[in-house]
Amino acid sequence: MAVRTERGAQEYVPDDPGSIEGLRAAAAHCRGCHLYRDATQTVFGAGPEHARVVLIGEQPGDVEDRRGAPFVGPAGKLLDRAIAEAGLDRADAYVTNVVKHFKFKATASGKRRIHQNPNRTEIVACLPWLAAELSLLHPQVLVALGGTALKGLLGPAATVSGSRGVLLPWPASAHRPELFAEEGARLLATVHPSAVLRAVDRDALYDGLVADLRLAASALTG
């Protein structure tokens, strides 16, 4: 049986996009992996180019896929609240995902779309877009929201439980040297807000997310 391979997004990334808007326009036509076939649209990152904090999630969800914007569903609303409680300025933050298309499995009735975790091949195929975003943003702090985002940045052995509560120097490893950030930038790992929504002890996990974001805020300068 033939093994399906992903071409990757690099051929769709413009050499000189000029701006985040230029990248967003190019990403709308990305066919670098098979996920575009079932998704409604590409969901690119959002926020100001002067953002000092970049929050990186896994992939858009059902609401994000339909609306074409990241973190606008229930998890995004929770994240906005946590950002405010942590003392970060939401207007100074850029939010994005390692995978820009929604991966899902439709129910038998077709009325619901069940989130599916992107696999390693799909993550690697989409990483050129994140690399291009970071090359324009030059953030001081990168926040990996959940294990998929962290593995995309640091490799398959990285875990949130093994990295939380520590501001890692960036680049924290040479796993993805093309992922560029400002000199002296820091990386922080924390839980994805959707994990908070699913948790039995939601309050405790939410408090941990806020504490992690406060640590991110403490690393900002200027």
UniProtKB/TrEMBL annotation:
Keywords: 4Fe-4S, DNA damage, DNA repair, Hydrolase, Iron, Iron-sulfur, Metal-binding. SMART domains: UDG, UreE_C. SUPFAM superfamilies: Uracil-DNA glycosylase-like (SSF52141). One of its GO terms (molecular function) is metal ion binding. InterPro entries: UDG_Type-4/5, Ura-DNA_glyco_family4, Uracil-DNA_glycosylase-like, Uracil-DNA_glycosylase-like_sf. The keyword RNA-binding does not apply. GO terms for biological process: DNA repair. Gene3D superfamilies: Uracil-DNA glycosylase-like domain (3.40.470.10). Residues 44-214 form the Uracil-DNA glycosylase-like domain. It holds the Pfam family UDG. It comes from the Bacteria. Belongs to the uracil-DNA glycosylase (UDG) superfamily. Type 4 (UDGa) family. NCBIfam families: UDG_fam_dom. This is Type-4 uracil-DNA glycosylase. It comes from Catellatospora bangladeshensis.
